[in-house]
Design brief:
Layout (H helix, E strand, L loop, with lengths): L17 H20 L4 H4 L10 H20 L19 H4 L6 H26 L18 H27 L5
Helix pairs in contact: 1-6, 3-5, 3-6
Length: about 180
């Protein structure tokens, strides 16, 4: 039985297998980000802390892109979907971060939620097809880097954990909400 904490997040398993533990921590951090961004309007999602230009809206949009990149484009070799397919990344490598200011909170949340759902399905497919040792279809052109699903999941846990720390600070500055 899955234990749910006071914020409604599933607690990662304490005695699960490797895949269950990795996915448990990734889902925990995804849920933490959702909690930190919940209920905020455009001003809340656009708030910054100190000299940083980082916003919760930008973070959601960035993580939507990161989900798309690693699970769809790298792991499965799929072409980018909109809105990512329309971006001139060479001209603006931080488009995902600052373009969020042009989106409504609903658009940003929906983009992130849909990216996460696709990532979950693609992860399930890769686990069923070859497990954690499944190698990415996309290989780095210059480096030959071809990560396994295991590496991608570890990287995504790290990516979310780092940004959830940022989200803690930003959310507290908006309305005082604190907590793990």
């Amino acid at each position: 039985m899955t234990e749910i904490d006071e914020q409604g997040r599933a607690v990662p398993p304490t005695a699960g297998g490797e895949a269950e533990t990795l996915l448990g921590f990734l889902e925990f951090h995804r849920a933490t980000l959702a909690w930190k961004c919940a209920g905020l309007d455009a001003a809340g999602l656009g708030a910054t802390v100190g000299v940083s230009t980082m916003t919760l809206g930008g973070m959601l949009k960035h993580l939507a892109y990161v989900e798309e990149w690693w699970f769809s484009q790298v792991l499965h070799g799929r072409p980018p979907e909109a809105p990512w397919s329309t971006v001139d990344w060479a001209a603006d490598e931080d488009w995902d971060w600052h373009s969020a200011a042009d989106d409504t909170p609903e658009q940003i949340r929906t983009l992130w939620q849909e990216s996460v759902e696709r990532s979950r399905a693609l992860t399930g497919q890769a686990l069923a097809d070859g497990g954690l040792d499944t190698l990415a279809v996309r290989v780095g052109e210059k480096t030959g880097f071809q990560p396994s699903l295991r590496w991608i999941l570890f990287h995504m846990v790290e990516e979310y954990a780092r940004h959830v720390g940022h989200a803690d600070l930003i959310r507290e500055s908006v309305d005082g909400l604190t907590g793990e």
